[in-house]
Amino acid sequence: MIKTKRFIKRRRLSNSKLIKIFKVIIMTIVGFDFTKINAEKTGPVKGKININNNVTIKNVEEQNLNLGKEKQNALKFVFEFIAKYDPDFGSIKLEGHLIYMAEQKKIKELLDGWKKDKKLSKDISTVVLNTILTKCNVQSLILSQNINLPPPIPMPKVQAGDDKGYIG
Q: What are the CB-based long-range contacts (under 8 Å, 24+) for 104-111?
């Protein structure tokens, strides 16, 4: 608390600026867990391969967090990530949830929108889906390597080229 007061005095921040800063801090992802991990290889890898990655938000529900003596409301996004290999020789399926903490007003607005038509606002869905995709892509890359499936995301490759452009 003393460090915060020093920061405020040093920066000469007004109350409105402080509220904006704390709103950014409050609206954040505070938890991520996988609840189910399944990777299977059903046959040998042959021919042309097509990999389809898909992430789906299955449910959004209110979650109460106990932070010290206070209860803080948050949202729990239940998701499913599937990497499907075509022709059918393997798949990776990840399920889990992400905890998103925000102000009570924003939580109510998001829950009402979800219950009404199963949609989220663009600003929230972008943050949530990007976080889910980042974590799931890394996990699916590890799993694909463990069971000898091709990586589900394109990997960078070195191209042999002409050395004329090299200045070294």
A: 104/73, 106/27, 107/62, 107/73, 107/74, 107/75, 110/60, 110/75, 111/60, 111/61, 111/62, 111/75
**E strands, the chain, in order:** 28-41, 50-67, 70-86, 90-101
Residue 100's closest CA among 70, 135, 63, 130? 63
pLDDT digits (tens, 9 = 90+) for 53-85: 999 999 999 998 887 778 888 999 999 999 999
Half-sphere exposure of 122 (CA within 13 A, CB side): 0
131 confidence band (pLDDT: 50, 70, 90): very high
Dihedral of the alpha carbons of 135, 137, 143, 148, in degrees to the nearest 10:
-170
For residue 78, count other CB atoms closer than 10 A to its CB. 15
| Helix/strand/coil for 109 | helix
Q: The pTM is what?
A: 0.77
Domain extent listing, the chain: 28-153
Closest C-alpha to 82, from 155, 152, 156: 152
